[in-house]
Specification:
By secondary structure, the chain is an all-alpha fold. It has eight helices and no strands. The radius of gyration is 17 Å and the shape is globular.
Length: 203
C-alpha cells in the first residue's frame, strides 16, 4: 500500500501557507517596491528549495561525521512562528531590503551579495554552520537580485528555515533518507526553469 511520508504532511502545508503569505505581501506592498509578482513567488520558492537542499545535505554531513548528534527538538508554536516567518522577515528587510539597496549605490551586485552574506555570517556565529549560512545567503542574494524584491529572498529564507526546523524536529526521517535529499534540488531547478521560460515568453 502506498503511504505518504510524515515529512510531506508537514512540508506541503508549510509551502502552501508561505505561498499565501507571499501573495498577500505582494498585493499589499507591491507599489512600494517591496512586493513580489507571481514569477517572484515562483523564484522565491525555487531558490528556497535549493537552499533547503543545502541545509539537508549539510546537516546529514554533520550527523554522519559525528560533528553533530541528532537530538529531536520539541516544537513550540511561538518559536515556530518566529523562526519561520517573523525573524526571516525582519532580517531580510534589514539585510536585503535596506542594506542591499544602500550598498547597491556604491558596489557591483556580486560584491553587494557577498558583503551582505559575510555580514550575516558575522551576526550568526556558528562554527558548524558557517559555510552553510554563507551559501544560503548567497542564494537569497541571487533571488533578491533577479526579482528586484527582498520579498523573494524572504520566501527563500522561510523555506530554508522551515527545512532546518524539520531537520531538528524529526531527524530520524532525514538522516538516512538519501532519496529525499535531492528532491528539493530537483524541485527548485524545475521551478526556476519554468520561471525562466515565462520570462522569455513575455519578451
Amino acid at each position: 500500500m502506498f503511504t505518504i511520508p510524515l515529512n510531506l504532511y508537514i512540508v506541503l502545508p508549510l509551502l502552501l501557507a508561505q505561498y499565501v503569505l507571499a501573495r498577500i505581501w505582494g498585493r499589499g506592498l507591491g507599489k512600494c517596491g517591496s512586493g513580489v509578482t507571481g514569477n517572484g513567488v515562483l523564484a522565491g520558492i525555487g531558490w528556497g528549495a535549493i537552499a533547503a537542499f543545502c541545509g539537508i545535505y549539510w546537516m546529514n554531513y554533520l550527523w554522519h561525521s559525528g560533528n553533530l548528534l541528532p537530538h529531536p527538538v520539541v516544537p513550540i508554536l511561538s518559536d515556530v512562528l518566529l523562526l519561520i516567518i517573523v525573524i526571516p522577515l525582519i532580517e531580510e528587510f534589514l539585510f536585503r531590503g535596506v542594506v542591499f539597496t544602500w550598498l547597491a549605490r556604491y558596489f557591483r551586485t556580486i560584491a553587494v551579495i557577498i558583503i551582505i552574506s559575510v555580514l550575516f555570517v558575522i551576526t550568526h556565529p556558528d562554527d558548524q554552520l558557517l559555510l552553510l549560512v554563507f551559501v544560503v545567503n548567497i542564494i537569497c542574494g541571487v533571488a533578491r537580485y533577479f526579482t528586484g524584491s527582498f520579498a523573494s529572498s524572504w520566501i527563500c529564507r522561510m523555506i530554508y528555515n522551515s527545512t532546518i526546523f524539520l531537520l531538528l524536529t524529526f531527524p530520524a526521517y532525514f538522516i538516512n533518507n538519501h532519496k529525499f535529499i535531492y528532491l528539493p534540488l530537483i524541485f527548485g531547478i524545475l521551478l526556476l526553469l519554468i520561471q525562466l521560460r515565462k520570462i522569455k515568453q513575455k519578451e
